[in-house]
Amino acid sequence: MHDTQLPENAGPDSRTLKKVGIAAAVLAIAVVATGLVTRSMATQELDAVASAAALPKVSVVTPALATGGDGLVLPGTVQAYNSAAIYARTNGYVRSWQADIGDRVGAGQTLATLDAPDLDQQLAQAKADYQTALANQKLAVSTSKRWQDMLAKDAVSQQEADEKAGDLAAKTALANAALANLRQIQAQHGFTRLSAPFAGIVTSRSAQIGALVVAGNAAAQPLFTVSDVHRMRIYVRVPQVYSSQIHPGLAATLTLPEFAGRTFQAETVRSANAVDPQSGAVLVELQAANPDGALKAGAYAHVSFAVADGTGNALRLPGSAIHFGSEGPTVAVVDTAGRVTMKGVTIARDEGKTVLVSSGVGKADRIIDSPPDSIATGDKVSVVPAKKPAGKGAKPDA
After folding, report:
1. CATH architecture assignment, domain 58-71+312-397
2. Which pLDDT score is estimated for 6?
């Protein structure tokens, strides 16, 4: 028999197996590394998404240059030239009233009358006391004169004559006191008739027939209010920056919402010449003629002064962008990295929905609209596009 010999290349040698093992190990390492990198990237992306979701989302606006203007326009309150609340000066019951709201009354015209039966009795007693005092005084006069005549004839002593003269002085004083008391009660009784202090219009009436009225009640409602509206007073608070241009004699124009297209002429008559520390404004009074009664007491009006508006290079921002804190008005400015910086601003004019800012911001600043109360310098925010323009002249930004 012959032995069978296998060829040398019939199976993989050790070097081939080693290469395959190394390749498999490298492939495994590559797969693991790829998995780790992918997982790390996914984790980082998830962290980034979570961080972005945690940032407050805000919309921003950019200031617009304030152009044009019709002078200084401010809100004003219209008041009657004179107004008086009529209260009762004596206790009683309303017997009748002769004037109602909207009625024109003259000075001294009766508005209502009161019944005061207890005061009537006090008046009758005061008259009787005065008559008694007069009778005693008259008797004392005749007695003193008689004693003086007898003293001249040495029929009585000086002491007795002096006593009668002293009695006359005392009775005279009692008569004067009784007269003063009578006049006081008469004056008090006169308050049972309520009258208009000046010519005007009755603007309120609470008097009701039979109702009890009590004098001196601070919480009581006035029985009538009479307003003199032939001429009206208009009160306006002028910002300090414009106060130097407002002076007595300066003309102004009034417009009221119920009279579209109609204007009323007014004139500045006086100024408080003091800045209110809370509002930063000066109280100014104007007056306007009111021949047809179109101006009503308590009405709201727009007052236009023909002065320079003083805006200069002021920028217009929506009022909602102003943050009012302990340090005054500020705005929250966002940089390109989403970092917030709080900047103080100076408000030149408050127009309601928008404000004019004279300093503190630039035209290129991105300002947060409606910033949170807790926002502070250094905070990170996420800027989102504004859904609509935030205010007149202010441009929404993304």
Report:
1. Beta Barrel (2.40)
2. 47
